[in-house]
């Protein structure tokens, strides 16, 4: 008689246990996304001083970083087709490590172009990571609760985003106000030496970031993260997509990508301009360097609301509509007040932005079936909104004022509102 298997059910990981492990691993990646991304809020004022830049030039930091999503999103889909999700994530982390290393020669030579190159490479690695991780977390469980899972990822992202500017700001913006005042009285040689010393402050932080990224790449490669087959379509989706030959035949995806473009633009404006805006409102950089943390804190509050409320009390569509309206209201508040009150309204844009991304993503990729990977690439390409809108804000700030430049965000929120009301329902 053949002996029956004696493996205890307790020794076999359940589907829920595996899902929880996967969520923890992806959560760690979203933490890295947030930490690296929101360092830019400190790099903008830091490089404006160290490399003697205008507002427009300084906000090219965001352009170099976010334009990589536009350039690399489609190649990222190709990489994922060849490697699968897990190996692709490891490759993305290693690419980011290369970008962080470029900051070392950039700092020692105080070459703004090298800083921008490093940011582009960092963004390229992130594009690959996001192309893999966003659809992964969406598909990992029921679609109707996808916004809830993405909200959990958002908390990981924004906790890191709250810590990053404080950590880097404490190093690179230490005594920045007194340094700016002293620079005005120095001769050229002394000024160059002071700026060289300021530029060198980023060397140690970015060496540490490089080491962490390499370590994570190794850990992800050997992790238990399962592969997910996004090419499989259930019978209903397959029937609906029978005559579809191109991702361009999904107008709700294309409109969703445009909504994502505007969303990322306003999110980056809210997070990356607030330090400089606070300084323009007469608040010392020593204090203003914490303002991005307030924006991230407001986003975390919004994500917590999403975890509790979606889909139990409010649908993903209704959340998108509500928070777009809140964005318009807070933007008008920032434009109609001054000083710390106006700055706080910009920080509160973080609350408005919090549930927009988690709602757009599942609405935009709904029903794509075998087109999910390439559709996700379109949404990743739309992150280039962070490359276009912040420099446009900087140009408006130079031409008018940092406060009046915030009029830019209102039409963006209005389009997001349209997508929540009707755009996601458009089918062909």
Search tags:
428 residues, mainly alpha, globular
Concise account of the structure shown:
Belongs to the major facilitator superfamily. FHS transporter (TC 2.A.1.7) family. With 428 residues, the chain is an all-alpha fold.
Structure summary, number of beta strands: 0
Global morphology: globular
Q: What is Rg?
A: 22 Å
Q: Low-confidence parts lasting 5 or more residues at pLDDT below 50?
A: 1-12
CATH architecture: Up-down Bundle
Number of domains: 1
Keywords: Cell membrane, Membrane, Transmembrane, Transmembrane helix
Membrane topology: Multi-pass membrane protein
Organism: Hymenobacter defluvii
Function: Intake of glucose and galactose.
How is this structure best described in words?
This protein has 428 residues and is mainly α. It has a single domain (17-227, 235-425), classed as MFS general substrate transporter like domains (Growth Hormone, Chain: A, Up-down Bundle), CATH 1.20.1250. Helix content is 76%, strand content 0%. The protein has 20 helices and no strands. It has helices spanning 15-38, 40-50, 55-58, 60-109, 112-139, 146-172, 176-183, 188-199, 203-221, 235-240, 251-272, 274-280, 285-288, 291-309, 316-336, 339-354, 356-365, 372-381, 385-399, 409-421.
